[in-house]
Amino acid sequence: MKILSVNAGSSSLKFQLYEMPEEKVLISGTFERIGIDNGIYTIKINGEKIKKDANLTNHSVCVDILIKELINYKVIKNLDEIKGVGHRLVHGGDRYNKSVIIDDEVIKNVKELIPLAPLHNPANLIGVEAFKKAVPKAIQVGCFDTAFHQTMDEDNYLYAVPYEWYTKYGVRKYGFHGMSHKYVSSRAAELLGRKFCNIIVCHLGSGGSISAVRDGKCIDTSMGFTPNAGIVMGSRCGDIDYSIIPYIMKVTKMTLEEVDTILNKKSGMYGISGISSDFRDIEAKISERDHRAILAHHLFVDSVVDYIARYYVELGGCDCLCFTAGVGENSPHVRRMIIDRLSALGIKINRQLNEEMRFGKEGLISASNSSVPVYVIPTDEEVMIARDTYSLINNK
Ligand code: ADP
């Protein structure tokens, strides 16, 4: 059965077509610069990468091109072969704790949740509408970034603000990157050969979050009401004292929106280093002993270590620590700095394995006498979407 896994953002659309249940990727690609000039799309098929320019006026145009290319590359003969389209939907609030078949009710709910995810949910819905129009016979499935974290207890998801802010306005911790945390924690349990175990997952990409997972269920996570909370990120500040906001507004005369944008796009690694939000650029400057690049790295590592230590205690010990996403999968330097700081917990690195484990490799990077095994597990949110879509179609 052919299932399309889709991640639609405001100006980009990523896709992978799977043959299920084999989980074989037949073709994948990305449309970029949708709605702006110089549109471009990339297709990967049979190990080959093809780049093409196109006028990508809107998401429907991209979906039409995508369908044409699937037929052009002989991946499908006709549209009816695509039985399901799984969409990444960022915010399901506390209404969804798992993936669902998208019907009018789901669309209404996701629309109602737009105030909680003003940038992401509308873009995700545009993607859903475009595919509904292009492949009307396929079943559309919604996979929420927040769903995996719905198992958190109220002790962990409530903020110490007036309780009515929660009941009336939905102010609580939701958590994000759910499909990644679910994929990595279940893969780690598989590697450990144990269903019942405590796992800490460090998803370190340009956005980052840490999760504490017990017996396959999330019990706590570092992102909060929005993805801005938690660890230091590429361009987001992570946890800060909220009083900084009114203070900066007062002394700079900036508006709330301007300060919000800075905390989102010009803070984190970028804000401290003044170089870039990309860890590769910062690591290049560290080798030149650039003080602010070193400082950014230190702040980042500190914030990750703090959450690992916190979740280690919260879980009452940990059976496995995992690194994933762009930085977690590819930067031995960051992983070594983090693990070296965890010696108080008896966690120790194997330097050689750590250097080897990058660019898509999965495996152990801890020393044989480490109190906790540490794994690098490349994340795969797309396959999670395809799995959920396949399973919902089969159990319909
Ligand atoms: P997202 O999906 O949040 O955009 P990714 O998980 O793809 O992010 O991670 C992207 C980040 O990973 C980049 O910004 C970069 O900082 C980091 N990254 C990618 N490759 C490397 C590498 N070889 N060394 C260090 N950092 C890397």
Could you characterize the architecture of this molecule?
There is one protein chain. The protein has helices spanning 59-72, 104-112, 120-134, 154-157, 163-169, 178-192, 244-252, 256-265, 268-273, 279-286, 291-315, 325-330, 332-340, 351-356, 381-394; strands spanning 2-8, 12-19, 24-32, 40-45, 48-53, 82-89, 100-101, 139-144, 198-204, 208-214, 217-221, 320-324, 363-364, 374-376. The chain has 396 residues and is α/β, with parallel strands linked by helices. The chain has 2 domains: 2-144, 2-Layer Sandwich (Nucleotidyltransferase, domain 5), CATH 3.30.420; 194-381, Nucleotidyltransferase, domain 5, CATH 3.30.420. Helix 11 packs across helix 13. The model has no long low-confidence stretch (mean pLDDT 96). Residues 205-207, 234, 278-280, 283, 325-327, 330-331 line the site of adenosine-5'-diphosphate (ADP).
Descriptors:
396 residues, alpha/beta, Nucleotidyltransferase, domain 5, 2 domains, 8-stranded mixed sheet, 15 helices, 40% helix, binds adenosine-5'-diphosphate
Mind sketching the topology for me?
Blueprint: E1 2-8, E2 12-19, E3 24-32, E4 40-45, E5 48-53, H1 59-72, E6 82-89, E7 100-101, H2 104-112, H3 120-134, E8 139-144, H4 154-157, H5 163-169, H6 178-192, E9 198-204, E10 208-214, E11 217-221, H7 244-252, H8 256-265, H9 268-273, H10 279-286, H11 291-315, E12 320-324, H12 325-330, H13 332-340, H14 351-356, E13 363-364, E14 374-376, H15 381-394
Parallel strand pairs: 1-6, 6-8, 9-12, 12-14
Antiparallel strand pairs: 1-2, 2-3, 3-4, 4-5, 7-8, 9-10, 10-11, 13-14
Helix pairs in contact: 1-3, 10-11, 11-13
Bound molecules: adenosine-5'-diphosphate (ADP).
